[in-house]
Write a structure and sequence with these properties.
The protein is of the alpha/beta class. Helix content is about 30%, strand content about 25%. The strands form 3 sheets. Strands 3, 4, 5, 6, 7, 14 and 15 form a 7-stranded mixed beta sheet that branches. Helix 3 packs across helix 4 and helix 3 crosses helix 10.
Amino acid sequence: MRALVCNEYGPPESLTIEERDDPTAGEGEVLIDVAAVGINFPDVLTIAGTYQVKTPTPFIPGNEGSGTIVAVGEGVRHYAVGDRVIFNCRGEAFAEKCVANQNMLMPLPEGLDFEQGAGFSVTYGTSYHALKQSANLQKGETVLVLGAAGGVGITAVEIAKAIGARVIAAASSDEKLAFAKEAGADELVNYSTQPLKETVKELTGGDGADVVYDPVGGELAEQAFRATAWHGRYLVIGFACGDIPKFAANIALLKEASIVGVWWGTWAMKNPKLQMQNVQEMATMIAAGKLTPRVTESYALDDFSSAFAAITKRRARGKVILRLS
């Protein structure tokens, strides 16, 4: 099989396409003929060797995709050869064949193609877990989403609206905000031209946002945290700007606010039953038309450098996909 390989840490352009032996499915696993894979910002960090969990080289990066099951291991239930699935794995997705645990699969929903399915697992899984389990978001509450047009941000907008929340989308350009508006955002904040904290306070009548969803980090983080409401929940999703924020603890005290870390992949492995429940609930939302995965850029495997550039240059809106077949 052909695979995208990281032989030494560095920029995504340093990856190479190589021939590798097909993997085999072990107990509780399936072997998938991969159709497409989703690229996420943590993939860039993993390739650079700066992600919080460092993968020894050489390795095949990638954590999500879609395709068709071609073999099943012992003990696999509910899935069979020929099933079209969405999968999540702990690396090695960027290849023509990939092994995934049965607990990290979901059937490809009717109405979604392989490219839409490839970008579903990580972004929707992260946002659904973040808003449901981590924030306990309630109907009628207000959610501030930073990086609202990005891969995870746009899913947070959709899911929060599906739950019944009011969504304030924040992004760095009017073009990105228009994209978030199409996904259902109620209010828009361009933090390149508007003060984030003051604008959010104004939009909420001085109360602030009940939940802040932040995949950006950096200097915006403290502004967003200061814009939370009483008993607000600030969700640490990631650090797309590259800088890990530091907070003044008195802000949490004065608001009785919470800073909650969100690491969906590890949570899903530790809580397979809750993860499957989340998957089933999201599948129902897809069928009802409440969630629509948005793929804005799609590339062939040989053009992987261009695909990663969409992420590293922060121009991506929605999902960036690599096609394997």
